[in-house]
Protein-S-isoprenylcysteine O-methyltransferase Ste14
Amino acid sequence: MPYLLLVLFWGLYYSLHTLLASLFFKQWLKNKIGKSYVWYRLLYSLLSVVGLLAILVYGATIEKSSLMAVTDFTTYLGYMFAAFGTIICVKSFRHFSLSSFIGFRPNDDLIEKQEFIQKGLYQYIRHPLYAGLVLIFLGFFFYQPLLSSFMHLLCLLTYLPFGIYFEEKKLTQLYGKSYTQYKNEVPSLIPRKLRA
């Protein structure tokens, strides 16, 4: 039962994450709250962080069920994957204004369209932030190989195809043929050299 709840919590979290980021919802909300919409990004960021922490805390309260023995090697793998994933996430933000991304700087993203980034890590994969998160969750599993850790990773991997689909649908609406061409030329999560 606790693991079923964990899956349901992740499903709700990811569904809300996608809905609240959609252009349809943003436009609807802006029509409702008017000028206050410029603070929506900050509210969205706060809800995302609080929701994520709540799920991780809940996962930590579940009775521990190990899937494999903890060794120096698994611990090393955990640190390695998590560190590499963190580096990728940090580099993913290099070309963005962090204050705007989090929402500390009020802005209307329905009017002030964000620059279409195709440099840095974005010239190799379209979603480096997602790739970094996968590595962090994988590292967490190797560091603490529990069923709850595995469920965190599995839920993320299950969500990604849907999350990417809806995000790219929005990006295509925003950037048109430029994004369609970019999508055709650049892989989603795994660089071509690694695939080869």
In short: The first helix runs from residue 2 to 21. Residues 89 and 129 are 5 Å apart (CA to CA).
